[in-house]
Amino acid sequence: MLEKEIEESVWRYADKLGCMTIKLNGPMDRGKPDRIFFYKGRALVIEFKKPGGKPTELQQSWLKKFEANGFTTHVVDKIGDGKTRIDEFIARTEAANELAKLFDDL
């Protein structure tokens, strides 16, 4: 399976669940993660790889920069793992937003 097939399948899954995505693939995006997924005020950063693939040093560096700024990042090399990461991201976002509502009501 190709990296682009994994990415497209996960992106379409996330889109059906209401996530907005940005694909980073321009000439100034060398080494940057493949996609950023947005859902209700939160973001998830994913680098896609073919099965068994690993990020380059430059890609690892970018992932660490995103993490240092509070973003969750993942390297995904299987469709099922990508869908699981999207499900977890949405669940965490929903839980955090519900908690925030409790404080808003105080």
Could you tell me the strand content as a percent range?
15-25%
Give me the strand/helix succession: HEEEHEH
Please tell me the overall pLDDT: 94
CATH topology: Trna Endonuclease, Chain: A, domain 1
Secondary structure: number of strands: 4
* Structural class by helix and strand composition: alpha+beta
Number of helices: 3
Total tally of structural domains: 1
Give the biggest sheet.
Answer: 4 strands, mixed
Helix content: 40-55%
Radius of gyration: 15 Å
- Please give the CATH class: Alpha Beta
CATH architecture tag: 3-Layer(aba) Sandwich
Report low-confidence residues grouped into runs of 5 or more: none
The termini sit apart by 51 Å
The largest beta-sheet arranges its strands as 1-2-3-4
Shape: globular
Chart the SSEs and their pairings.
Elements: H1 3-16, E1 20-23, E2 35-39, E3 42-48, H2 57-68, E4 72-76, H3 79-104
Parallel strand pairs: 3-4
Antiparallel strand pairs: 1-2, 2-3
Helix pairs in contact: 1-3
Structure characterization notes:
There is one protein chain. With 106 residues, the protein is an alpha+beta fold. The chain has helices at 3-16, 57-68, 79-104; strands at 20-23, 35-39, 42-48, 72-76. A 4-stranded mixed sheet has the order 1-2-3-4, with helices on both faces. The longest helix has 26 residues, at 79-104. The chain is globular and about 50 Å long.
